[in-house]
Amino acid sequence: MAQQNKGLHLTAPKSEGFVLDLKDKTPVTGSHSCNIVDAALFMGRSFRVGWGPNGMLVHSGMPVGTADSGIVLSSLINVEKVAIDKVTRDESNKVRAELTDLCFSSPLNLHKDLNHETKKLELGTFGLKLQKLVCNRLTLPDICRRYIDIIERQLEVPTLSSASRVLLMHQVLVWELIKVLFSSRKMGGQVKSVEDEEEDMIADGRESYPDVDQEALPLIRRAVYWLQESVYHRVQEEVSSLDESSDLEHILLLLTGRQLDAAVELAASRGDVRLSCLVSEAGGSPANRADIAHQLDLWRKNGLDFSFIEEDRVRLLELLAGNIHGALQGVKIDWKRFLGLLMWYQLPPDISLPVVFNTYQKLLNEGNAPYPVPVYIDEGPIEDASNWVANDRFDLAYYLMLLHARQENDFGALKTMFSAFASTNDPLDYHMIWHQRAVLEAIGTFSSNDLHVLDMAFVSQLLCLGQCHWAIYVVLHMPHREDYPYLQATVIREILFQYCEVWSTQESQWEFIENLGIPSAWLHEALAIYFSYIGDLPKALDHFLECGNWQRAHSIFMISVAHSLFLSGKHSEIWRLATSMEDYKSEIEDWDLGAGIYISFYLLRSSMQEDSNTMTELDTLENKNDACSDFIGHLNKSLAVWSSKLSVDARVVYSKMAEEICSLLLSDSGEGSTGEAQLNCFDTVFRGPMPEDLRSYHLQDAVSLFTCYLSEIAQIFLLEGFEMES
Length: 726
Description:
Blueprint: E1 35-38, E2 50-52, E3 56-59, E4 72-74, E5 78-81, H1 97-113, E6 116-123, E7 126-133, H2 140-155, H3 162-182, E8 185-187, E9 190-192, H4 194-200, H5 219-240, H6 247-256, H7 260-269, H8 273-280, H9 286-301, H10 311-320, H11 324-327, H12 335-346, H13 353-365, H14 375-378, H15 396-405, H16 414-417, H17 433-442, H18 452-464, H19 468-476, H20 487-498, H21 500-503, H22 507-515, H23 520-534, H24 537-546, H25 550-567, H26 571-582, H27 595-609, H28 621-642, H29 648-667, H30 675-686, H31 692-725
Parallel strand pairs: 1-4
Antiparallel strand pairs: 2-3, 3-5, 6-7, 8-9
Helix pairs in contact: 1-2, 2-3, 3-5, 3-15, 5-6, 5-12, 6-7, 6-10, 7-8, 13-15, 18-19, 19-20, 19-22, 20-23, 23-24, 24-25, 25-26, 25-29, 26-27, 27-28, 27-29, 28-29, 28-30, 29-30, 30-31
């Protein structure tokens, strides 16, 4: 399907399937498609699911995005348009140019501006320059900041949907978390890694850091600050829904976000000085937690009736004692706040982050911690969230924590971590996670050559937006594999072939692709195939010549181009095209009977048109006749070879070449030539491929010449007879 048809509206014909009672059970009723009848069963494997051009999905299942989860009758084939460019659309579902730029061009330009190392990949006579991002943990904070700036510019787009804003805010938090967990900084001329910072840290859980440069804080303090920031809006949303009489619940909510100053002020303002003092020590010394826990145990042993104490106050005391499960009985909170409670109030304040993350994972495996669901499930409002299945996947932020906490280099969850569903509900959106993978791999957090699904998904997304040059840029960053040495070359050539209508019409894309080191022969080959397909054979010929496909260029020249140029009088163009292939005639089959015919014609015609004093080889009629006879012979052989492929116009050209050469030959057979030599010229003429009327005309001249020739011979015989008698 040509690219210009991509905007055509798809109209599905109205049709009805057969009638069947949906209460009946069939072999496919219990499948994921919930179909009582599957259309694919009727034709076996000849029809399944297929992608068409420009995001067309053809299938026999439930319509995409349907809210009905019940049994359906699927005896119909659905043809639907899938929005691969969903991330570039605003709340009115219109594509915004600024969103396209901020989602794709700006991050990729940033990626391109970073340092890269190149690897030369030899592919026969051609070569590719594979690229790999190069950065380190010292430069990581600046890189993360630059990506965050791009996302923040997206958030400034006025018509952005609320769902998109949730996802973008999450992306900001992810980049902040990458900076927190994996960056290093210089202290006293030495590079301090995150692990070194943990050892140097002096924990103080009472501190808050609203106005402190995060790069100056040790790792755990930065992690604490990140958690506070990431849950702040959730705490504020829940606080805003409380009534004024729920002060204790208000304080508890503030503590779930570690907003200690606000919680202390609130407790003091209601006159509860003791609670205010306890809250001010929250997350501090383990001895304080032990004292509060001991007091609660004494009350229980002594049979204290807790019904005389407010339930929320007991929850507060349990939380301050480090018993987060006792404090959260019957209360549901998100996974990030639970992780914060674990870090702030239950575990020792000087514990390392890997221990925190592994403790959470242990509680999760035991079913005692909330599942770290992706943000589009956790916060919404995201469509289709009800279809999500528990234990399916984690949030990308949690994967980053597990990556930091792993004890060995192998991290088995990479493919799940770098799937689209880890950060967005759009399974076709890989525009940001590709950059996060590239940065994390560049700083050495992991190494993998098995994430081609991520690369190709991002390539497909770029191609659907017409960003062919960036798609090729992404392909060049795919890691080389010895078992698939031609992977990058194959993908790039397919992109050039399938989308040449796009990149060839935009000079900036063409130049960008050439600057990437893509062989120009590949570009010209793609264009040659494209112009052959649409029937523009003169352009196809030029591009076949540029890419060095001499045999294909020669065929097009002989069958489709040369005769039209000849009949149009463009002989210089024929000469240019033919001579450009002459140096490679050893690679061209039947060169002498193909384009070589045209070169021979022009050389012979030029020689015969020159003045006699400049001719050396063709100075006699016999030599001219021999040269013309040789040319006519090649012309006839060429017709025999190409006869099944030549059009009528091409045959006319052969006739005209023969006619012109024969006319020049006959014009030179005048005075000073013997009759026998002149008759030999006519013999050459009659062997030429020319129309019958022209042949008859020359035949009359030949008869006339032959008659004269006989008269001359007769006169010679009479003269010789008289001489003998005398």
